[in-house]
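Section 3.1: Structural characterization of target chains.
Under the original work plan, the team committed to producing a structural model for every single-chain target entering the pipeline before any wet-lab resources were allocated. The record below documents one such target. The sequence was received from the expression subgroup and is listed exactly as submitted; it comprises 203 residues.
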Amino acid sequence: MKALGISTSPRIKGNSDLLLRRALAGAASVGAEPEYVHLSDYRIGPCIECNACYTTGECKVRDDYQVLLKKILDADRLVFATPIFFMSVCAQAKNLIDRGQCLWALKYVLKKESLTVGRDRRAMVIAVGGSKSKKQFESIRLTMKTYFDALDMKYIANLFVDQVDDRGQVEEHPSALDQAYQLGAQLAGTDDPPEKTIDIELP
């Protein structure tokens, strides 16, 4: 089983990045083959809304998106980690998500079978923000639900941590590190997925 972790934070070993690494360690503990990706290492531009994918089902913009998309489609499990910027995912994450328009077009415009039809594919989200407000996670839930639907992945869990801002601060938050590890292990399991998305918020 392949477990892909995508760290969308521009900071290596920032808070969402560190929790992602713990989640991948949890997945590896139950036998999954983990792969870590730092999104900033890939040259991925924004969607240009050319709508070429409405005809072809593929993105017309040629850059590193195609390389990363193959990794995503090959993965059985996905951990998507982002810091909160202005109550939403960071810019790097949004670029990647928006380029998924080609997958949405394949599924809902062209009415074609998923590129991963018949496979058990599951995903979880890690998001970390400095604000005390719980509202910072509302847009994350909706955005990621829509993105995972386009990927044909079952949305298994959220790990949301607020009031954590300074680089590496989450290392002083043992409950967040433990939850990331446990959720990573659960994500990589083969038991029936939960009926509802597991939603964990930690102050």
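The chain has one domain: 2-202.
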